[in-house]
Amino acid sequence: MSKLESELVLLRQTLLNFKQPAALDFKINYVYRSRGKGTFKPLTKGMILQSGDHYKIIFTPVENCYVSIFQVDSANKLYRLFPMAGFRNIILNNLNPVEGGKTYYLPAKNKSFVLDEQIGTETIFFMGAPQDDLIL
Q1: How many angstroms from the chain centroid is the CA of residue 26?
Q2: What highest taxon heads this organism's lineage (predicted)?
Q3: Run of H or E including 55
């Protein structure tokens, strides 16, 4: 067997033995209240919110990890929701790493985000990783 063939056999065996890391698990709830009045209700897929509605994200990781949450608005502007040290002159200290079993409220337990007057689709991206991603 040539050196190249030996290296290919070794590479193939290495790839066959590669184990995909287990997926991280989270409990994630998106909640809202119409015009900021009343109690928060679950936000489900396909629901339509209105300008002035309040919403928040509540998540609990199963294990310690790093989380990044972004929102893209209808004008394609990207906003970081987590990690976030502060929001509108309020110190939040929503920072990484997050602790397994601890519940996190965004922007804060007693605060919420408010939809602006810009009409259109808003998309939230929730990403978790076992180690910090310096690019995010």
Answers
A1: 10
A2: Bacteria
A3: strand 54-61
44 CA to centre of own chain: 16
User: Cis before residue 42, ω within 30 degrees of 0?
Assistant: no
Determine the length of the chain. 136
Please answer whether residues 63 and 55 qualify as being in contact, where contact means their C-beta atoms are separated by less than 8 angstroms.
no
Q: From CA 41, how far away is CA 43, in angstroms rounded?
A: 6
Tens place of pLDDT per residue across the chain (136 aa): 677 777 777 767 776 766 666 788 999 999 999 998 999 999 998 899 999 999 999 999 999 999 999 999 888 899 999 999 887 788 888 999 999 999 999 999 999 999 988 888 889 999 999 988 777 6
Those residues whose C-beta lies under 8 Å from the C-beta of residue 129, and which sit 6 or more positions away, are 24, 65, 66, 68
Spell out the domain ranges in the chain.
22-129
Report which residue type is found at 40: F
